[in-house]
């Protein structure tokens, strides 16, 4: 079979066994004679799948009944606007700026003329780290962070402890490590599926129901979290095939041993790659030690011409998705859950050879 090694940042690699399973069931879901795409989102077959997926997510993250688990549309991008629209409560919303995605979220707070503050930023150092000593006010309406910065390759080693509700954009490290909702004051935790949990088209939103109830009368019905909470995400037709794929990925995570095992593997993969980069004088990592992402490794060769050549030769060697984001330039290897340690070792072998020829 002709499958490449896929280091794309998103949409990105999906486990082969998940794709094979979807292929086998494509025309006849569990032998029922219809595709999962061809049936009502309100019927009992889809309902069972949908609720089972929600339960799996609750179990992974130890999510209590105080929270709703929703599958929404519009990407993480729509959440940048929906968060202030629904959760701002007349006080102050506090943001940490760690890159492009938080900058966009902050822009939406500004557009809505809410009272917001940027309490910490790493913009001065080209977003190469997570700021130290972040201080949120205990009584802020919410504190907002992006747990993994897909473009710059930085990640919070741990989610901050807050007295106020914490809102987390976890799009690019969703289901990549353990998280116990009982140990943090999480108000809302969300992410698009297309980095680590399946195809594009779904945003997983886990939200505390009492915070969703803050919503003001002037917020349009489809943009209220309460609308989807009351309807179990069925206020309108959800992306049923995407939810099906998401559910297959949840099963695959269980087969790997759950989030703890996945996290261990992710640490090994990232260490293997960073160790090689740090021991080389040819390659340089963008993110500072202590802030490095286990998911996205952004790095450079000595110059932009070599970066371009690297991407070209990598493709000739069956490896795709290694070009850095256009904003940062350079190279980026996204090593999400579906990328194996062997895949990373193959990449490092290629990097060695490229350095030998061009160093
Ligand atoms: C990809 C990404 C987004 C944007 O997701 P869309 O689905 O394109 O809206 C937002 N935040 C983070 C951290 C991302 O990685």
Automatic annotation (TrEMBL):
Cellular component, GO annotation: cytoplasm
Known catalytic reactions: O-phospho-L-serine + 2-oxoglutarate = 3-phosphooxypyruvate + L-glutamate; 4-(phosphooxy)-L-threonine + 2-oxoglutarate = (R)-3-hydroxy-2-oxo-4-phosphooxybutanoate + L-glutamate
Keywords attached to this entry: Amino-acid biosynthesis, Aminotransferase, Cytoplasm, Pyridoxal phosphate, Pyridoxine biosynthesis, Serine biosynthesis, Transferase
UniProt: L-glutamate binding residues: 42
PROSITE patterns, A to Z: AA_TRANSFER_CLASS_5
Subunit comment: Homodimer.
Record-given protein name: Phosphoserine aminotransferase
Lineage of source species: Bacteria, Pseudomonadati, Campylobacterota, Epsilonproteobacteria, Campylobacterales
């Amino acid at each position: 079979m002709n499958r490449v090694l896929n280091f794309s940042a998103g949409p990105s690699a999906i486990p082969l066994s998940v794709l094979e399973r979807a292929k086998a069931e494509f025309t006849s879901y569990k032998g029922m004679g219809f595709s999962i795409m061809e049936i009502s989102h309100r019927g009992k077959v889809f309902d069972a799948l949908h609720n089972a997926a929600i339960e799996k997510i609750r179990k992974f993250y130890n999510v209590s009944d105080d929270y709703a688990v929703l599958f929404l549309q519009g990407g993480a991008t729509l959440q940048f606007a929906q968060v202030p629209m629904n959760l701002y409560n007349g006080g102050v919303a506090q943001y940490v700026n760690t890159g492009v995605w938080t900058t966009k979220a902050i822009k939406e707070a500004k557009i809505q003329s809410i009272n917001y503050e940027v309490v910490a930023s790493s913009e001065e150092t080209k977003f190469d780290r997570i700021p130290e000593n972040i201080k949120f006010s205990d009584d802020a309406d919410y504190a907002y962070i992006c747990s993994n910065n897909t473009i710059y390759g930085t990640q919070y080693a741990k989610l901050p402890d807050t007295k106020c509700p914490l809102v987390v954009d976890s799009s690019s490290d969703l289901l990549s490590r353990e998280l116990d909702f009982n140990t943090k004051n999480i108000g809302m935790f969300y992410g698009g599926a297309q980095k680590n949990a399946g195809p594009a088209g779904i945003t997983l939103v886990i939200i505390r129901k009492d915070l969703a109830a803050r919503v003001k009368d002037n917020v349009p019905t489809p943009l209220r979290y309460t609308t989807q909470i009351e309807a179990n995400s069925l206020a309108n037709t959800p992306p049923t095939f995407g939810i099906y794929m998401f559910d297959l990925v949840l099963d695959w995570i269980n087969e790997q041993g759950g989030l703890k095992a996945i996290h261990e593997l992710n640490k090994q993969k990232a260490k293997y790659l960073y160790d090689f980069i740090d021991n080389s004088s040819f390659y340089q990592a963008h993110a500072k030690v202590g802030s490095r992402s286990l998911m996205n490794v952004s790095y450079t060769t000595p110059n932009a011409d070599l970066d371009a050549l690297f991407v070209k030769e990598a493709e000739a060697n069956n490896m795709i998705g290694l070009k850095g984001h256009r904003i940062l330039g350079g190279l980026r290897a996204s090593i999400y859950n579906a990328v194996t340690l062997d895949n990373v070792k193959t990449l490092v072998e290629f990097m060695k050879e490229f350095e030998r020829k061009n160093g």
